[in-house]
Design a protein that fits this description.
Length: 187
């Protein structure tokens, strides 16, 4: 099994969330309101799953190992673009969560920020996923031996297992620091 299969499976779940965000965007533009609970959950999903879990494995395992290889200029350029897109996704997701907090507190002007962030995410992620699926993941596997691919796959499984523990360690730490209240920043 190649180590990219789990990454591509994760893409399908991210695409499902992007579809939900597209529906929320249509509703926000039509109704001039959003469901702050949905936006909070979508932000949490993108931050925890798409970024920490999925992009974490790409950056901390696959890209790290690719950095050790003599890649073509094209593959290096695409990898650099992917890292930059990960950063953009993080920034926009933080902005979305912040705008949603303001919106929940009654700031109606924050709705335009929410809409802008959703537009950015529903534009970014499909292009990003297509680039990885069709132009990057499969070709770069040729740089690795079967043993190297198996090792990365095992490391990816360990990464996923450890992620849950890190998430809840972060939650408890946030509760400890906040005197018993985690607020919205724990996850």
């Amino acid at each position: 099994m190649m180590p990219i299969a789990p990454l591509m499976i994760e893409h399908r779940l991210i695409e499902r969330m992007i579809d939900l965000l597209k529906a929320a965007l249509r509703e926000a533009e039509r109704e001039h309101r959003v469901d702050p609970r949905f936006i909070e959950n979508a932000s949490r999903f993108i931050s925890a799953y798409a970024d920490r879990c999925h992009h974490g494995k790409e950056e901390d395992i696959l890209f790290r190992e690719l950095d050790k290889k003599s890649m073509t200029g094209e593959h290096r350029r695409i990898m650099d673009e992917l890292v930059q897109e990960h950063r953009q996704g993080r920034e926009v997701t933080r902005a979305l969560a912040a705008a949603n907090e303001r919106y929940e507190q009654g700031d109606e002007k924050a709705l335009s920020g929410i809409i802008d962030c959703i537009k950015h995410l529903v534009d970014l992620y499909p292009r990003h996923i297509e680039k990885e699926d069709k132009r990057f993941f499969l070709p770069v596997m040729e740089y690795f031996s079967e043993e190297e691919r198996d090792r990365m796959l095992e490391e990816g499984h360990a990464f996923d297992s450890d992620l849950l523990h890190r998430e809840y360690d972060d939650l408890v730490s946030a509760l400890e620091e906040g005197g018993g209240t985690a607020g919205k920043t724990a996850f």
